[in-house]
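To: structure subgroup
Subject: Chain for Friday's discussion

All,

I'm putting the inputs and outputs inline so they're searchable in the archive.
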Amino acid sequence: MSQMLQAPFLVVTDHAGDDTVGYTLTAASAQLLTLARALTDGEVVAVALNSAPDLDALGAQGVSRVLVPDLEDHSPRVPAVVSDAVRACLEQVPGVGATLCVSNYRGREVSARLAAQLGSGAAVDVTAVEVADGELQARKSALAGSWTTRFHVTRGVPVIAVRPSSVEAQDAPTPTRPEVSAVPVTWSPEALAVRVISSTQQQGTGRVPLAEAQTVVVGGRGTDGDFSLVEELADLLGGAVGATRVASDEGWVPRALQIGQTGVSVAPELYIGLGVSGAVHHTVGMQSSQHIVAVTDDPDAPILDIADFGVVGDLFEVVPQAIETLRAAGLPR
């Protein structure tokens, strides 16, 4: 039986949407809440950075309380604003065992700032968290993926940013009806120094978001700029499209699809690399994938060293055959 802490956990949740269409709890946040329930026998408290949190989804995850910090006219896109808001929420939950947030661009910066404010420690891009020997321990890769580390925070309340898709979201056995409380916030000079004038939401592709996808199909230099097979296979499998840095640098795909050290980090159930060599600056962002498949015409490509299944051949010959076989098997379903 796994160990658990006897302390409440605070989870900073993200919601998609706006005041017009309403807000929906993101998949990555549902994963965080599932993780929190597995780590504590205490209550799970959610922080919502919008005025109308998705209470049905939060209740399905077993959340007991939802704290809504009063952001006034400050934007939750500013990390200093979020860290101030979360710190105010922590004052409402005595004895917190840990604070969890999503390891995205904002989450990583918020984690570092919040830990500095609390005199504690932060860990980002974490892929696993467990309770061992009565303490919270986390795992992540380091040094461009050449090492896997296991560590714990020795002082204060741990602030942990978890990589999306590291945990499978599961509803709580018994849903709850969360109590919602407004929380006043005292602002730091850094939060007051930045004001968002305008923002535009990136247009969706109709596919699952890259960082949240359970299946990711990635195109690299070997595609020579033709991502048609990458997109077709991703759509067939209900997955997301990703790319290596060279594909983004060449302008073949938007920069938002880049996976790696200077891009998005993913940990899907299935990663498929098409024409991907496996340079370390790419693999550091995907090596936590549960299953790795690679198609490359280079028998010495580094990605074959970490692939569970590799095919050496021309992707423009191999992938159409794979797609035909998948369709014959009845996909999509």
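Points worth raising on Friday:
Residues 9-192 form a domain with the Rossmann fold fold (CATH 3.40.50.620).
The radius of gyration is 21 Å.

D.
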